[in-house]
Amino acid sequence: MYGPLYAPPYDDADVTLIVDRQNLPTSNINEIINKVANIRKYCISYPILRMLNIVASGKGGNEKPFIMRTVPDEPIFILSRVDRVSIIFHLRFDEPTDRAIARIVVQELTEANRVVNNAPVCSWSEREPPLELKGIPNIPIPNQDPFSIGYLTFSIFPNSCKTDNQKEIIAGQFSLFRNYLLYHIKAGKAYLHARMRNRCDSLQRVLNRAIPEDPFAEKEKKLASGKTFVRK
Question: What is the Cα–Cα distance from 174 to 179, expressed in whole angstroms?
Answer without folding.
Answer: 10
